[in-house]
Amino acid sequence: MQSIINNSNVSINSGFYFSRPLNEKILLVQVLVGIFLYVNFIMIFTFLKKEVFREDTRYILFAQTLFNDSLLMLLTDLAVVWSYYSYLIPMIPCCILCTLMNWLNDCTPLTLVAMCLERYVAICMPLRHADISNSRNRKIGLLIIWTISSLMPLLTLIGFIAVNPSSTMQSSVVCSIEIMLTFTWQSQLRAVHLQLYFICMFVIIVFTYIKIMMAARAASSDNKKSTYKSLRTVLLHACQLFLCLVQFLTQYIEMVVMQIDFMLFINVRYSNFIVFVIAPRCLSPLIYGIRDEKFFLVLKDHALFGLPKIISGAFHVNQHGLKCVKTRPLQMLHT
User: Which cellular compartments is it found in (predicted)?
Assistant: First the structure.
């Protein structure tokens, strides 16, 4: 199932716990998560401060990705720390936490697909872009994203409650998504869902990439630059989506490795967490926070707490003052 929690914690059913040599790795994760949350906070603040961003579909989807990934990373990091110290929590809060993380985790790839489709409409159907990307359609699109991404997590939760006795819900556990997969058929159902998930999104990404590439070749010289930029954006989204979707498959590799060597299993899980959880979510700030010129100008001002404007204003004042100093002797000569 979801490997976000599993990437840094071990199976409660197997009775394994983190060994002390992982302490430095856990510290590294805290640093990476702290930097990630700070950058995302600045970008969310930038989005909220400018009305022009709140009325553009691609920036709205970008802001949803930032919010979704930030909350997911915060909850995941909390689960990692709890698992590392073998902290017991009641089963009901654990189930809610795992369901929420599953929900947020499934939401990110769908949002990335929606962002690619938005670029496809903007480039390949520019005359209809304003009509398609209106406020009503944006709300419907966001509702569809959150609804589809909630289906499997809610089914997993309902299945867990249905197949386990009520006494199980009153116990305390080291929280892990693995405890919600009581029977093999639950894991198989999740695997089928993820495979369909992967195929559908892969087809959509390839379709949008090919269409935008065709539009780029047919575009005039004035529009080629923006079209090719959108093409690179879709390609980056494809890489980001690929990493997110591969994350769904890492649990099967981890299960095989755990049967071979436990310490190797821990190292593989830790590497999967860095590469397939943290890394793809660091691409969103790169794609829209740095590559987008309009957003980057506002972001730079907020990230530096308005320092560029202060320096620029002081520079102009100094220039004006120097000019007055230079002209004063000339005025004295004329008098």
Answer: Membrane
Distance of CA 96 to the CA centre of its chain: 21
Q: Kindly compute the dihedral angle of the four CA atoms of residues 28, 250, 269, 177, in this order, to the nearest 10 degrees.
A: 100
Please list, residue by residue across 188-217, b when 16 or more beta carbons sit within 10 angstroms of its beta carbon and e when fewer do: ebbeebbeebbeebeebbeebbebbbebbe
Closest C-alpha to 271, from 7, 1, 6: 7
Same domain, 230 and 206: yes
Q: Could you identify the residue written with the tokens 């994350």? A: 247
Range of the domain at 218: 3-281
At residue 297, what is the residue type?
L
Q: Check whether residue 223 and residue 257 sit in a common domain.
A: yes
Q: Indicate whether 108 belongs to any domain.
A: yes
pTM of the model: 0.75
- CB of 115 within 8 A of CB of 237? yes
Asked if 164 and 305 sit in the same domain, the reply is no
In a domain, 217, yes or no: yes
The verdict on residue 333 lying in a domain is no
Q: Do residues 279 and 243 touch, judged by C-beta distance below 8 A? A: yes
DSSP 290-308: IS-HHHHHHHHHHHTTTHH
Question: Is residue 96 domain-shared with residue 170, that is, in the same domain?
Answer: yes
Q: Are 243 and 272 in contact (CB under 8 A)?
A: no
In angstroms, what CA-CA distances link 155 with 169, 182, 289?
A: 17, 13, 35
Check residue 88 and report its DSSP letter. Answer: E
* Same domain, yes or no: 261 and 315: no
**pLDDT at res. 18:** 42
> Is residue 111 included in any domain, yes or no?
yes
Q: What is the domain-level CATH number for residue 154?
A: 1.20.1070.10
64: amino acid identity, one letter: Q
pLDDT of residue 310: 52
